[in-house]
Structures are given as structure tokens and as C-alpha cells.
Amino acid sequence: MEGIINWNELWKLMRSGSPWKISLDEPAGSFWDKKSKQFNESMMQNRERTEKQIAKIGLAPEYTVLDVGAGTGRLAIPIAKQATSVTAIDPSEGMLACLQENMEKESVKNVVRINKQWEDIELGVDIEPHDVVIASHSLSMLDIQEALAKMDAAAKKCVYLFTFAGRWMDGGFCEEICGEKRSSWSDYIYLCNILHDMGIYANVEIWDSEYEQHYASLDEAVTKFKEMYDLPSEKEGLLRAHLSKILVEDGGALCLKRKSKSAMIWWQTNAHERA
Description:
The chain is an alpha/beta fold.
């Protein structure tokens, strides 16, 4: 029955219809340049989530690690404290600028930043193989099979992918405010099937995950959501009503709690052992 479904082409179809498709139409990284500071503020709050992810990665002090879509360094910086070095690749100059600021705050110096999208990286030219390759919620490449093959070739020991299992944790935001359900293009099952078709029989672990974001007030929450999702002013009333329903009081602030299923897909890069 092999070949009935072309999972890579299905991924392309789902990806092109995602709410983030604007990032495909703009110069690489520019979509996130505008949102890098807010994204950094949000992501760097989730230290517990970061610690859980890193605990699942097999690291050793002598390892070199490649972080594909490193963003502002949520994983790259703590990993750099445990490994020999980290190479952080990201197409957004704004994200990498925040990463540099975070490195300075954490006194981390063994992270090399490369401002390119993964599709444009040439092995042996831009980078050499690393012991471990990771990609955490950064698999937005249109040709994901080609991207995964390059990650496999870039890893001397293991590749670790982090994504969602099932529906993305938007708390009903896209459906209620934008009038569309969040596309399931990032669901782990696509990646597993694509890898299987490539002859890579990956391991999968799924667990419950909770994300928290704190806001000083409802006004601040509304402002930040409008900026992150590029919402027009006429949507503000709907957004305010939606956030009023889902934000909860927490220590004098307002907290957005979202639950989801997280997935880790990983494999050892021993090509000779594949069928």
C-alpha cells in the first residue's frame, strides 16, 4: 500500500492554508522581525517548559548542537550551558538580535548565530555536521521532506523535533476571532509519516503541556494579541470579549492558560541501519 498518500504534498497543501501563510509571502524572517521583542518576552517566561524539553534531549558536555529555527534562544541558551557549543539558525534578524541580548544577560558566549532560513543552508559550506540537531516548533518549511533530510544529514548522532499532537493550543482564538479553525499542518503525525516514507523509523513521545502568559491588564492583553496576530481595529471588540472569558486572575495579574498535547519525535542518525 506504499505511496497511496504523498504526505509531503499533503503537508504543503496544509501549510499553504495556515494562518501564518503570510510568512511564506514576505522576505525570509521579516514576518517575525516585527514580532521578535514580544515573542521573546512571551517565550522566555516559560522556563519550566524549556527545562522539560531539554531533559528529554540526550546531551553530553562534549556535544555540539544545531538549533534550527532557534528564535530568541529559549532552548539554545540553556543548552549552551550544558554542551560544547550551539549553532543557532534563524531567518529573522530581529529574533537573533534578541538572542544576542539574552546571551549577554545569561553570560553565554558559545552560541554561533546564522541569519538564514534552513532551506538556504548548505552543509559543508554554511555549517558542518553537529552531534545533535533540534527543531522546536519551527518546522514551517514548505518542502518538509527536504528539510528533514538535511537535518538528518547534519546530525552525527540524533535529531529531535518538537511540535504539537492534535489541535494547536490557541484556546479557540482563530475560530472565534478570525473565523477559521487553526490548521493542523503542524501535527506530529505528518512528520512521522513523511519520515517513515524516507526510511526513518522515528521514536515518538507525547505528553500534556500547559502554556502560561501573564498580562498586567486586559488592555495590555488586547494590545499584544492585536500586534501578534495583525488584527484590524474592527476585531478589537470580539478580541476583548474573547480574552475576558479565558483570562484568569493570578497574583494580581491576568493569566492566559492554554493546554495542549506536545510531541517529541527523535531518531538516531545511523543511516546504515535503515531498511
